[in-house]
Amino acid sequence: MIPLISIILPVYNGQEFLKKTISSVLNQSFNNFEFLIIDDHSSDNSLNIINSFQDSRIKLIKNNSNQGQILTENKGLNIAKGKYIARIDQDDIFLPKKLEKQINFLEKNPKITGIGTWAIHINEKDKIIKKIKTPTSNKEIIKVLLYNNPIFHPSVMFRKKEILELGSYNHKKKYTEDYALWCQLLTSGYKLSNIPEYLTQYRIHNQQCSSNNKAIVKKNVLETRAIFLKKIFQEFKSNKKIILTDCSDKQLQEIAYYCAENFIIKKDWAKANFMIKNIKYKHFLFKIFFYFNKNILIKYLRTKNKIKKRLM
Question: Residue 225's CB: how many other CB atoms inside 10 A?
Fold first, then answer.
């Protein structure tokens, strides 16, 4: 029987949390899946942990040399037999009904390409740090992408066909390939969503690649966001809508506001001025400071973004 879902787990020296991660996948309420565990030439006990599981759904693939996360993810996409792809990292946890809820959603909503979930942040000892709610509608996801990542990568399930058509993950966007993929999907006319339930546990610890490579993460995020911002700006200037299709007037104004914030931080006054003209009902003081004291406005936005930990 061809599996409906292919779950891709790249592994590199992941022995500390790997057993819990694998167990969380195998214990799902929905079981029509293949579990592609791709070992990226680990030098620790990862392979022994993987081999300790006797489950026919597990397909172990070994890289002959260390290829890195993105090439390993793309290898999984090309091998996968399932109609849908789910991603998990070697330190995260699927809660028992995650796959069941996501597959039901995607089967009932053919216009949605990718679906994430709300997430629970946990530490090395599985203690809950906090619970994170992410936007559930495509329109809200567009807005949040202008200052943050609105979909947890290990929470996502997406349609394989559409991702392969886009060329899979961008290997140039190290540590931020997920953010780049969400932006690329939206600029290509696809839609994203999140299930408003806590179905994924996302582990926070000191050995995370993204935590230890913040300069690369920031550079890649800013480059991706600049392209996304440019596409949105072009849609505001033209009548052709791909990203902004179906957005209400109020939603367009909120998106215009966050675009304006980005342009002001970059001191691109002409584009900021254009976007501000699309803001009618809210942010009155924001508009006043833009026209009369830009320096104060820049300081305010930088402080605001720092407090909210936005990568501007």
Answer: 21
* Range of 147-151, 237-241, 290-294 with top mean pLDDT: 147-151
Question: Strand 58-62 vs strand 112-122: parallel, antiparallel, or unpaired?
Answer: unpaired
Q: Are 118 and 199 in contact, with CB atoms under 8 Å apart? A: yes
- C-alpha distances in Å from residue 70, one per residue of 12, 41, 170: 12, 14, 8
Quote the tokens at residue 187.
């600029």
Burial of 106 (0-12, 13-18, 19+ CB in 10 A): buried
Rounded to the nearest 5°, which phi and psi values hold at 272? -60, -45
- Does position 250 have pLDDT exceeding 90, yes or no? no
Residue 226 vs residue 273, higher pLDDT? 226
In the predicted model, what is the mean pLDDT of residues 109-118? 98
Q: What is the mean pLDDT of residues 95-112?
A: 98
Q: Determine the residue type at 111.
A: K
- CATH superfamily, domain 5-214, is Spore Coat Polysaccharide Biosynthesis Protein SpsA; Chain A (3.90.550.10)
Contact 296, 264 (CB under 8 A): no
Q: Which two tokens stand for residue 19?
A: 């057993």
The predicted model scores a pTM of 0.90
Round to whole Å and give the CA distance between 262 and 270: 12
Q: What are phi and psi of 18, to 5 degrees?
A: -60, -40
AA letter at 92 = D
For the chain, give every domain's residue range.
5-214, 215-307
Per-residue model confidence as pLDDT tens digits over 14-59: 999 999 999 999 999 999 999 999 999 999 999 999 999 999 999 9
